[in-house]
Amino acid sequence: MKTKLFAVSLLAGFLLVCSLPARAAGPLAGRLGARMGFSAPGAADEYFRQYDVFYDFDLPWRWQRPDGWLIVSGADLSLGVLQGGGEKAAIGSGGLLLRFIRGITTVQLGGSVAGLSKNNLGNADFGGPLQFLAYVGLDFQLTRHLAVGGRLQHMSNGHLYHKNPSLNQGMLQLTFAF
Predict the structure, then answer these.
(1) Burial 115-151 (b: 16+ CB within 10 A, else e)
(2) What is the per-residue pLDDT for 163?
(3) Which of 14, 39, 62, 121 is a Cys-bridge partner for 84, taking CB atoms 3.0 to 4.6 Å apart?
(4) What's the CATH code, domain 2-177?
(5) What is the overall mean pLDDT for the chain?
(6) Cα angle 68, 71, 76; round to 5
(7) Looking at the whole model, is its pTM more than 0.85?
(8) What span, in angstroms and rounded, lies between the C-alpha atoms of 69 and 71?
């Protein structure tokens, strides 16, 4: 129930922010990158690793705050592998995000819908193929085109299925902006 409430709140907040006066962006920026994540023991006491490639891009709404923060709306797509319990599953996701940018620092808040090719990995049963992701991330721009960062990510099926063990991961990422 908490995951559903969080997802609905995230969507409502995003729609509220999008309804505020904003200026349309010029050419939309995109970012391509690789991510890897690790979990502490969680679902059925299994350790999990995740490896993703991702593409995120700006949507045409942005807000410049008087305190110097630029808020940019965006979308995120990823495809990867989730490993745990000696087994592997494909994972893909797509969702919305907000990026808060100031200087070389970017804070990301996002939520996505994800799909798993297998819902049983070792002793962990994720309940079914449909999952929800919520995350908060922090990136640092190294050059105009290169950034490094990390994020804390929570995956859950939102109690769509009988079992809902959820998975929390810390993830590191390398991003190329164009």
Answers:
(1) ebeebebbebbbbebebbbbbebebebeeeeebebbb
(2) 83
(3) 121
(4) 2.40.160.20
(5) 87
(6) 145
(7) no
(8) 6
